[in-house]
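Researcher: Quick test of sequence recovery. Tokens follow.
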């Protein structure tokens, strides 16, 4: 019995099964390494965005206090510059599709904002929402004194 041989100069076309499996294994290893880093990046960037929004809300509270000598206790009521109004979260003027936005949430909808306090004090809180924050469920807070806390341990941001 003779085995068929290839003519000189002809080339094999395509990939072998082994080559495909090796390529798939390399891609799987890269995904396994990269995906947790990507998730951590998303959590970190979302936290930074929530911190920026908290600072902006604290500034709005101070403007309200300058106008009416009292802070507001409402997050989702429209902002009117007075303590009878609210902080206007979200500000529907900045939102393209207002129907798709949940009131009281950050712009990326990963944090929920709340406010507590009296006429002369306030604490704004941003609480993470969603399963992606199972490992990082710590709320961010800022007070009228500018004190910024992350979680209940008193760690500052």
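Model:
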């Amino acid at each position: 019995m003779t085995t068929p041989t290839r003519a000189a100069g002809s080339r094999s076309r395509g990939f072998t099964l082994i080559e495909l499996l090796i390529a798939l294994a390399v891609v799987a290893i890269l995904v396994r390494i990269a995906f947790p880093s990507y998730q951590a990046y998303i959590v970190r960037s979302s936290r930074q965005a929530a911190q920026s929004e908290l600072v902006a809300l604290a500034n709005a509270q101070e403007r309200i206090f300058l106008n009416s000598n009292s802070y507001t206790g409402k997050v989702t009521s429209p902002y009117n510059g007075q303590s009878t109004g609210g902080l206007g979260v979200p500000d529907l003027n900045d939102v393209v599709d207002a129907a798709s936005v949940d009131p009281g949430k950050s712009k990326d909808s990963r944090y929920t904002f709340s406010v507590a306090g009296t006429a002369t004090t306030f604490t704004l809180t941003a609480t993470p929402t969603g399963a992606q924050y199972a490992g990082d469920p710590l709320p961010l807070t800022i007070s009228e004194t500018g004190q910024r806390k992350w979680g209940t341990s008193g760690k500052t941001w």
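The longest helix spans residues 17-68.
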